Structures are given as structure tokens and as C-alpha cells.
Amino acid sequence: MIRYLPVLALLSTGCFRLLAAPSPMKAERAVTQPPAKCLIVFLPGVADRANTFAAEGFMEAIKERHLSIDTVAADATVGYYLRGVEVPRLERDVVRPALANGYDQVWMVGVSMGGFGTLHYAATFPARLDGLLLLAPHLGEETVLQQIRDAGGLGQWEPPQSRRFHGANYTEDTWRWLKGRAIDGRPGPQVYLGFGESDLITGGNADLLASALPRENVLRENGGHSWSTWRRLWNRFLDESLIRTRCG
């Protein structure tokens, strides 16, 4: 499904556990009593796990701002993506059970590989989310991205007729949804994008998406494809985005 993924690198470092796709998908939850106004679902990058977000201070940043947010970090490792099952497992095992608490707002945050998972989920369940944040996201198959560039951008791109996620067109369907949301103004979640100016892994493709989003929804920072950059972007997102007022 996502052919860019550095699977060989994972194998060489002995990270075989990341290639599995256990059922049910595991998650780490932090729920207040009573439940908060908002829920944020986190999706990790290719070499990260559910607990990485807490380790990198993402949950602490929420607490410091006294925001009314519960969190659930999905252990959506690369194995789910390789099998093309990350979205149904995420919906069945993580999101749907969490919604039982009843939230005014549901947001999703994805880092790198998890950025594509976030977009894929939003395109599959367009009415489920109120907002999403993509941090240095992988944006799908390069062949489709090049077609969008060749057309002159997302506004000029004419996507092929939809075949609805039949296993070979995840990127097309996801960008078709993005065009409807960002260009045609169809109803859907707020889309925020954050990335480092020196990101050599996803930075070039991030510009392709940034050009289709409102300027205030695009966050840039000095730095590369690293958690130090994403922490700064996360803090800015909490301070500058609609989530501050909606979940305050």
C-alpha cells in the first residue's frame, strides 16, 4: 500500500514487532472523569509506537494549557499499512470504542506515516472527524503525487473515476477527498498541516498540500523530519488552531 516505507531498515534493526498487525489494535488511553469535551486520536510514524507521543511531551502540552481533551494513541504500526487494514482496525478497535464517552469534537493527529493514515481515515469516514493535524505526513504513492504536480496542483487535477478503496487506489481516493474538501469546499474536518522547512523526507510533498490549504492552517518551523521539530509544531497548533477555542 505505501511503498516508500523503509521496511528493510526496520528488518536490519531487528524491529520485527513493527511488521505485525495484532488484532485488536492496541492503544494507550488517557481519559478524564467526567470525559472531556474533545477527543484526540494519535497515529505514530513508521518507527514509533503509541507511547511515543507521551514520551515526546504531547500529552503534557495539553495539560499545561488546561484544555478539555481526552487522548487515545493507537499502536498503528507499519504492519497494518502493509496489509492495507489500518483504517478498519483503527475504526473498530480504537475510534468507535472511544466515542462511547460522547465528545463534542473528535480530532486526529498523525505523524509521518501516521499522517497518511489520518488522511486515509478521514477520506473513508468523512463525517467522523472535526479536525486533523498532519505532521510531516507521508502523502501516498509518488505516481499519483506527480500527476497532481503535472496538472498544476490540486485545483487543476482531475482524479480518475472513484473505485472506492479496492486495494490499489488508496492515494487517488484520499486526494480526491482532499480536493473536495480543500478546493471544492465540501463539508468535512478542518485540515491542518505542519512540517519542517528542512525536512528532506516529506517536505517537498508537504508543499503540494500546503498550497491547497488556507494559510492559517499551515505551520512551518525550522528543522527536519524529527520529533524536536514536531514538538514545536504541536505547541503552535495547540496555541494557534481552532482546537484552542473548541476544546478550551
Write up what this structure looks like.
The structure is a single chain. This protein is an alpha/beta fold and 248 residues long. It has one domain: Alpha/Beta hydrolase fold, catalytic domain (Rossmann fold, 3-Layer(aba) Sandwich). It has eleven helices and seven strands. The chain has helices at residues 7-12, 52-55, 58-64, 78-82, 86-99, 113-124, 142-151, 170-183, 203-210, 227-240, 243-246, and strands at residues 27-30, 38-43, 69-74, 105-111, 131-135, 190-196, 218-221. A seven-stranded mixed β-sheet has the order 1-3-2-4-5-6-7, with helices on both faces. Helix 5 crosses helix 6 (113-124) and helix 6 (113-124) crosses helix 8. The longest helix has 14 residues, at 86-99. Residues 1-13 have low confidence and may be disordered.
Which labels suit this protein?
248 residues, Rossmann fold, 7-stranded mixed β-sheet, 7 strands, 16% strand, alpha/beta
